[in-house]
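Reviewer comment 2.1 asked that we show a complete input and output for one of the modelled complexes. We chose the magnesium ion case, as it is the one discussed in the main text.
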Amino acid sequence: MEKQFTANEKPYLEIRKITKIFGDEVVALKDISFSVKEGELITLLGPSGCGKTTLLRIIAGLEQQNQGEIILAGRDISRLPPKDRDYGIVFQSYALFPNLTASENIAYGLVNLKKPRKEIEERVKELLQLIGLPDVGHKYPSQLSGGQQQRIALARALATSPSLLLLDEPLSALDARVRIALRLEIKHLQDRLGVTTIFVTHDQEEALVMSDRIVVMNKGTIEQIGTPEEIYRFPATPFVADFIGMMNFLSGVAERGNTIVRCGSVHFKYHGSTPFETETPVLIAIRPEDVNLRAEKIEGENIFSVIVQELEFLGSFYRLTLSLLGLDGGKIVAEVSINRMRALGIRQGSSLYLHVPPELIRVYPTRNRVS
Ligand SMILES: Nc1ncnc2c1ncn2[C@@H]1O[C@H](COP(=O)(O)OP(=O)(O)O)[C@@H](O)[C@H]1O
Ligand SMILES: [Mg+2]
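Response of the prediction step:
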């Protein structure tokens, strides 16, 4: 199912050193560079205000960068007006023309290009099929649901078969159920059409589900670029670790040999590649699902005695807050399946053993602390 890109494939879209400053001092983007392969769906992910929309608008030519270039298929499009850049775009709010029918909305770009009527009719019919709404062509936007309107907006963006599809939080205004259905539909459609796509969202789950690669942004800079699995399993910074999924953070200091971090009086072993000087303040990060619980003590690394302080039932699993003696009041959150809860007979106050495999612990220098 996963798309295959070869390592030496030429970039299709190149974002080179883009900087954008609003007014005198609002630095919305700082020296942003990355490239997108042909047919790839790349997501710009980050909290509100980190510069996602600004970057998308610069790619679209709706905003002018202060510095940097945009290269599309080998052509510098940095200074071209929007109409000469060859993209389709969908925004969060339904930007359909209210006085035009669904079909007329989809046909809009084709009419502008003065395509023959017959050809337009066929293309609109084809697009309505493609988005799974063959029978709504005659309806006006107000007669359509939010999800249907966004499908029409998507069809309109795709009508002229653009080189690039730009999607700015197209699902954010929809309710959860529709959002979940539509994100898979968009992914499959994108895959089928092979249209190079930049998708913007602040929703980490959406990014993980939809993307070939994710660009994680924070305050106008890139924190990490990688596949969803790379970003989740090997977050490059505490910001990424914190923003995507849940994470336990514990403060400590690096000890001898770069394989041990001391938090309070607890020693965590890890498999590190970055060397730290002895006694460097560090932050260790552990995913709640990587905390294994056992009823009996076993021999091995990172096995500690804990007490269950709190438990939250979350449907398919429990989230436990564990206190670990010697951790300076530090708590560790674990996620445990219902079956495992039953097997271990876990309840509030239970005494258990915690085990975290060293290879699943990430260690960061404290100066990169989550802020
Ligand atoms: N037209 C503008 N004038 C001044 N500041 C702007 C303008 N557009 C965006 N900004 C600022 O640039 C930053 C990035 O905004 P934006 O790109 O909309 O972020 P995001 O889409 O990630 O939420 C924010 O600090 C925002 O206030
Ligand atoms: Mg935005």
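Residues 52-53 surround magnesium ion (ligand 2) (CB under 6 Å). We note this here for comparison with the apo prediction described in Section 3.2.
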